[in-house]
Amino acid sequence: MSPSAGPTGSASVSLSAEDRPQAPGGTSPAALGVAWDTASKTAALDLATRGMTLYARPGVSAQAWIADLRPLLTPQAAHDYMDVDPSTIGITSFGAGELAVDETNGFAAKARFGSAAGPYEVVLHRNGADQPWKIVRFNVPGPQ
User: Fold this and answer.
1) Bridge pairing between strands 134-139 and 108-113
2) What is the pairing mode between strands 108-113 and 120-125?
3) First to last CA, the chain
4) What is the pLDDT of residue 142?
5) Is the distance from CB of 132 to CB of 71 less than 8 angstroms?
6) What confidence tier does 17 reach under pLDDT thresholds 50, 70, 90?
7) What is the pTM of this model?
8) Average pLDDT, the chain
9) What is the pLDDT of residues 37-58, one digit of tens each?
10) CA distance 78 to 140
11) Are 113 and 95 within 8 A, CB to CB?
12) Would you report the helix, strand and coil content of the chain in percent, each value rounded to 5?
């Protein structure tokens, strides 16, 4: 009895190291129909700004804080932030946001907001070009 050959794949594999495309054949999200346009960038920055406005409220109750933020969050982010005590948030105001995008990835973006405590970052995601942006996480400044 001779050993049988293992299964063989029919698609080439592309690694995602060093920000190279991950899809077979080297396609990128833009090639899959999720490209950046002015409306997408505006919507992403608007959501990030609304999120920061609701986030930076140390004077509200924990229940009101998460209830107001929840519609803007992914389900995982809503779970992750449900036990946050807003009184521990060290800012009440912040500067204008600046959106950072990878033009080859229309699914994700980051918005950065300056504050007296340092830069805050809002990480955003959407599931498709016609899907709403949602907040994945708030990145707070590190110790100074």
Assistant:
1) unpaired
2) antiparallel
3) 68
4) 80
5) no
6) very low
7) 0.76
8) 83
9) 999 999 999 999 999 999 999 9
10) 17
11) yes
12) 35, 15, 50
